[in-house]
Amino acid sequence: MRVRAGFPFGPPTWPGSVARPPVERRTGVDFETDWARRYPARLARAVFVDQLLRPLVRALVPPHVHGVDRLEAVDGPVIFVANHQSHLDTAVLLSALPDRWRHHAVVAAAADYFFDNRLKGTLSALVLGALPVERGRVDRRPLEQARALLDEGWSIVIFPEGGRSPDGWGQPFRGGAAYLSMHGDFPVVPVHLDGTGRVLPKGAKRPTRAAVHVTFGSPLRPREGERTNGFAGRIEEAVAVLADERATDWWTARRRAALGTTPSLAGPDAGAWRRSWVLERGARKRPVRTWP
Amino acid sequence: MPRPGFVLDVDRSTPPTLFWHGEGFHLERLPAGSRIIYPPEPLDALSDPDEAIRRALLEPLDSEPLPALLKPGMKLTIAFDDISLPLPPMHRPDNRQRVIEAVLDMAAAAGVDDVQLIAALALHRRMTEAELRHALGDRIYDAFAPNGLLTQHDAEDPAGMLHLGTTDEGEDVEINRRAAESDLLVYVNINLVAMDGGHKSVATGLASYKSLRHHHNVRTMQHSRSFMDQHRSELHSSNWRMGRHLKASGVKIFQIETTLNTNMFPDQFAFLQKREWEWKAGDRARYLAASKSLERAPTRIARRIFQSMLAPHEMTSVQAGEVEAVHAVTTENVYRQQMVEVSGQTDILTMGLPYICPYNVHSVMNPILVMCTGLGYFFNLYRGQPLVRAGGVVIMSHPTPWEFSPVHHPSYIDFFEQVLAETTDPLEIEAKYEESFATDPWYIHLYRTGHAYHGVHPFYMWYWGAHALDHLGGVIIVGGDPAAVRRLGFKPASTMRDALEMATDVVGRDPSVTHLHCPPLLMADVTA
């Protein structure tokens, strides 16, 4: 049995008749990350990303990067919006980002997962430049913080599905990226990540070998009079078109987009086994053995 | 927003409670069902005290602005509170320095040449140069002291006192001649507890023994319920009569009163101001380091550590003008900082006495001052009715050493050795011994030329506790020198548990217990 040291050697007990004040949270969405954007932390992160993360990603899951040419005309801070299938997504996307954004980007990360304790929060902020966001409820504070960062010239990577895909199919996009773009006139670059869900799907403990593709789409901007929901839907469609482009070819994807027949990221509206069946058929390469 | 004070009901989950014990402190676990009265947190300080002072002087209460009262060729006297305030002494700049510099700026602008400063120390000891410099600042000291214009009140100087007649009740009103004969007397006060200030500033601070004995006596103190509540205090009634007589006699007083928050201890001792269950790891570490090292340190060293401590007090209000109008506002500000509502009396009142009281700054807290602090000051920190019921017991925690400062408290030594050896009854002491001590030429010589309290001062300390002695069924001192405690007429106990057990002999089985978690200062508003 563990014996606790009594007061004053140990912490005091709390009198039963005194109401406890609300605990001042320093984790979750309240985790302070400003320090991670100062020069010492940026230097450490740059060394980590360039000297360790990118070589590791290239060696283990070499991503095929497509569509970088679509970003040539883009200048200044950008909101990268990508689908989310795996914990590898952030590492792969950071590795694939063009140089001018890679060291000046923050990643919006789930506060309840990456910032639920001080150690994880510190590592997430230092290594990934992560910014805690609430995914379970609407909270304006992280949005205001993200907007302030965009104003300061930082780009933001957002996975608007709010979490990794549970079954390999996409989930509805939330409106945070669209809101940020509409309130600051920042371009949204849709990104489709393919294959990471096969390498390390949600729930898997060990990765398997599979091809990984990163496809950047053309920057999007809100249209005149467009509402946030409408723009969020357009961003989701743009990522779906990129997915279709990867599954078929650019021309087919463009034609289906024009006809409005682009397959949804969310997959068929069917029972679980059929959704899984379709997904397995779509896989280009079945895993043959566990890796490494 | 500072939290108000409150009364904690002790249960099994309540952590041990801090008790002061002279130059040290310890934690005691009080029985379940006891109550602990916690003081309010320190109020926010004035953001710009100098501007607040200037505004108070320009927009006084029931008085013309100070500049309008200052004229070339006039005789201006500025009197100020002595070393007994505030406690612990505050960090520089002291309130007195801030206020007096503002007053002198206006006097200089008005072309007033005849200005004199007087430390209003009544029958207290004279301040040292270092203490005066600390209170007034070097600028004031260097400008006035070398020219003999910074003086200390001498109640035994026949030529320096002026008798202004008697009040309606036959009380002699005799104050400092320079102050009485000035065209304007500016009094600069620091109001630490509700007893301070008002007419008591001049009528006591600048008075003589002949005048003081009318209210510093056993009857007055026994009829002051309490002397912290000016509306039920005979001490104040007498001072107010004298103050009004002064006004009627033509003494023009411009009163400036300041209040402080209860920020009493510097950062390394900040845990002394916190509620125990809110102590963080750093607080606990500092407590352990301080309490263990103080236990092992020689008393001389421990005393030096504490006596060199300066309080980070901050000014919470300043008001100036007519004495009574000013003091009404000041009292409200003191209550705002210190008042805690308490429901009902208790059988046993416990208190931990600190290392300091108004009369042992830079000195020794001798047994008589222990009695005065516990039964004079702490017992009287109430409004309404005493915290402890009639016939109840007070348990004090203090080492109560049989030790005196021969420089500061020479008459205390004789009072303790001769008077208390005979009797502890205040009335008998007053009738039999007061006159001889008050008029003893050696004590008067030490008071006038050294740094000694007046010969009669230990009597006043004893009278200060007269109401408590009359009210209580017993007094127990925990951890005190048994011989010294017995000489005071109290019972010594080794531990708090023993003391509580002993107290049941007086108040009966299963008594109610209340602990006064003080300092920081608080005042209990006790309802039935």
Report what the structure shows.
The complex is a heterodimer of chains A (292) and B (528). With 292 residues, chain A is an alpha/beta fold. Chain A has one domain: 3-Layer(aba) Sandwich (Glycerol-3-phosphate (1)-acyltransferase), CATH 3.40.1130.10. Helix content of chain A is 39%, strand content 12%. Chain A is built from 11 helices and 7 strands. Chain A has a 7-stranded mixed β-sheet with strand order 1-7-6-2-5-3-4, sandwiched between helices. In chain A, helix 1 (39-60) crosses helix 2 (88-96), helix 7 packs across helix 9 (228-247) and helix 9 (228-247) runs antiparallel to helix 10 (250-259). The longest helix of chain A is centred in the N-terminal third of the chain and has 22 residues, at 39-60. By secondary structure, chain B is an alpha/beta fold. Chain B has 2 domains: 6-43 and 299-312 and 337-527, LarA, C-terminal domain (2-enoyl-CoA Hydratase, Chain A, domain 1, Alpha-Beta Complex), CATH 3.90.226; 49-260, Rossmann fold (3-Layer(aba) Sandwich). Chain B has 21 helices and 20 strands. Chain B has a 7-stranded mixed β-sheet, sandwiched between helices. A 6-stranded mixed β-sheet of chain B has the order 7-6-5-10-11-12, with helices on both faces. Chain B is globular, with a radius of gyration of 22 Å. The mean pLDDT of chain B is 96. The interface between A and B is medium-sized, with 11 and 18 residues.
Q: Structural class given helices, strands, pairing of chain B?
A: alpha/beta
Q: What would you call the shape of chain A? A: globular
Number of strands of chain B: 20
End-to-end Cα distance of chain B: 30 Å
Stretches of chain A where pLDDT is under 50 for at least 5 consecutive residues are 284-288
Percentage of residues in DSSP E strands of chain A: 5-15%
**Helical amount of chain B:** 25-40%
CATH hierarchy, class of the largest domain in chain B: Alpha Beta
Overall pLDDT score of chain B:
96
- Named CATH architecture of chain A: 3-Layer(aba) Sandwich
Strands of the biggest beta sheet of chain B: in what spatial order? 1-4-19-14-16-17-18
- Number of continuous helical runs of chain B: 21
Describe the oligomeric state of these chains in a short phrase. Answer: heterodimer
CATH architecture of the largest domain in chain B: Alpha-Beta Complex
Radius of gyration of chain B: 22 Å
Number of domains of chain B: 2
> What topology, given as strand order, has the largest sheet of chain A?
1-7-6-2-5-3-4
For the record, what CATH class of chain A applies? Alpha Beta
How large is the count of helical segments of chain A? 11
Mean pLDDT of chain A: 85
